[in-house]
Write a structure and sequence with these properties.
- The protein is of the alpha/beta class.
- Helices cover 29% and strands 14% of the residues.
- The protein has eleven helices and twelve strands.
- The chain is globular, with a radius of gyration of 22 Å.
Length: 378
């Protein structure tokens, strides 16, 4: 195979819903166990690459291994002013995510470090080893005022590399010492490793956990989320955390038209039986390069459904693949989006989900005394 290089003036990629050129595709043997089918250049790159058949046999690609690079940052708490979400600050211990969920809305963020939102996002990861130290410094600042910190809003804080890096655990230990409220979003049962710490924080109303259950179908989960835990393991995590007194929300996300939308009621019922006290959902979001990545994934795994999926999604996004407008970007609008909203509300009512959400307290926040502090002398 040969290679052409473009100057970025005319993208070599196709429109929404798939790639028109093969340059971004990666051979199946080189992406075994990964979610993305391609590795396109990030949207900020000046060049585009395209492969073409030049008569020579194609050389086999190596199986991609996970690489983790330490990332040094000056601050660890990220602020936002979005009216669509219930928190104004968050922490992400890792950039990129080894779970490899093809639909992950955070994939385009890899473009900010010159990498692809495709396979790079799930194989070339960044850790933030100074996260706990930075957090302690920021919480200790005289002007800091506590509000719930969301942990894992972009990438999963309990993705596989957390087993060896332990950054999420270190961050939670700091939050516990400061008695600071936290909300955690994950789809991994690795969170049960920290059940002892979470139970202590829950007893002080300092923590809530959201577990993502995208589907109950193991085959679909394996295709969409190849390195994320089995759906059964996520339900077991909901049960174990609930038994430990930790309030748990089940998130049916993303809802994908014509693929997993028929499971809404079943997911909510299974999560409720497991002990979930709250439930929410997000309609599939496809910002930037994600429309092409997901479209290419459909071309390989569910080609017969692709056109219908994107048609329904477009109808819920004002005729576009994605609409970032506040108020509708999470749930969409129009007949299809209204149907999903009504089904979700009816199922929650039938299954007895409480109306009022669990809210964490900020009243217990304190700055622990440190060795050498003047007050420690008295």
């Amino acid at each position: 195979m040969g290679l052409r290089v473009g100057n970025g003036q005319t993208p070599l990629r196709g429109g929404p819903g798939g790639f028109s050129h093969g340059g971004s595709r990666v051979a199946p043997e080189a992406r075994r166990g990964r979610g993305a089918t391609a590795n396109p250049e990030g949207r900020f790159e000046a060049t585009r690459h395209e492969t073409f058949d030049d008569g020579w046999p194609e050389e086999g690609e190596r199986v991609r291994r996970t690489e983790v690079t330490p990332e040094r940052t000056r601050h660890i708490i990220t602020r936002n002013a979005s009216p669509d979400i219930s928190f104004d600050r968050s922490i992400n211990p890792y950039r990129g995510c080894e779970h490899g969920c093809v639909y992950c809305f955070a994939r385009p963020n890899h473009g900010y470090v010159g990498l692809s939102p495709g396979l790079d996002f799930e194989t070339r990861l960044f850790s933030k080893p100074d996260a706990a130290v930075l957090l302690e410094r920021e919480l200790s600042a005289p002007g800091y005022r506590p509000r719930t910190i969301a942990l894992g809003t972009a990438t999963d804080p309990y993705q596989p590399i957390e087993r060896t890096h332990g950054i999420t655990r270190a961050v939670l230990e700091v939050l516990a010492r400061f008695r600071h409220p936290v909300g955690i979003v994950t789809k991994s049962n690795l969170i049960l490793r920290d059940r002892d710490l979470l139970a202590e924080m829950a007893a002080q109303n300092l923590v809530k956990v959201a577990i993502s259950v995208t589907t109950l179908d193991p085959d679909l989960a394996r295709r969409m989320e190849p390195r994320a835990p089995h759906p059964r393991k996520r339900l077991e995590a909901i049960h174990a955390l609930s038994e430990a007194g930790v309030p748990v929300m089940a998130i049916a996300a993303p809802i994908i038209p014509s693929l997993n939308d028929h499971e809404i009621e079943a997911i909510l019922e299974a999560a409720r039986i497991a002990g979930a006290r709250e439930a929410s959902y997000v309609l599939l979001r496809l910002p930037h390069e994600l429309d092409e990545l997901v479209g290419d994934w459909f071309s390989e795994h569910y080609p017969g459904r692709k056109a219908h999926v994107f048609s329904l999604l477009s109808g819920a996004r004002g005729g576009k693949t994605y609409d970032a407008a506040f108020g509708t970007r999470m749930i969409g609008q129009g007949p299809y989006a209204d149907l999903i909203r009504r089904r979700f509300a009816l199922a929650k009512r039938r299954l007895g989900y409480p109306e009022e959400p669990v809210r964490q307290t900020t009243e217990l926040f304190r700055r622990p005394e440190r060795a050498g502090d003047q007050l420690a002398l008295f």
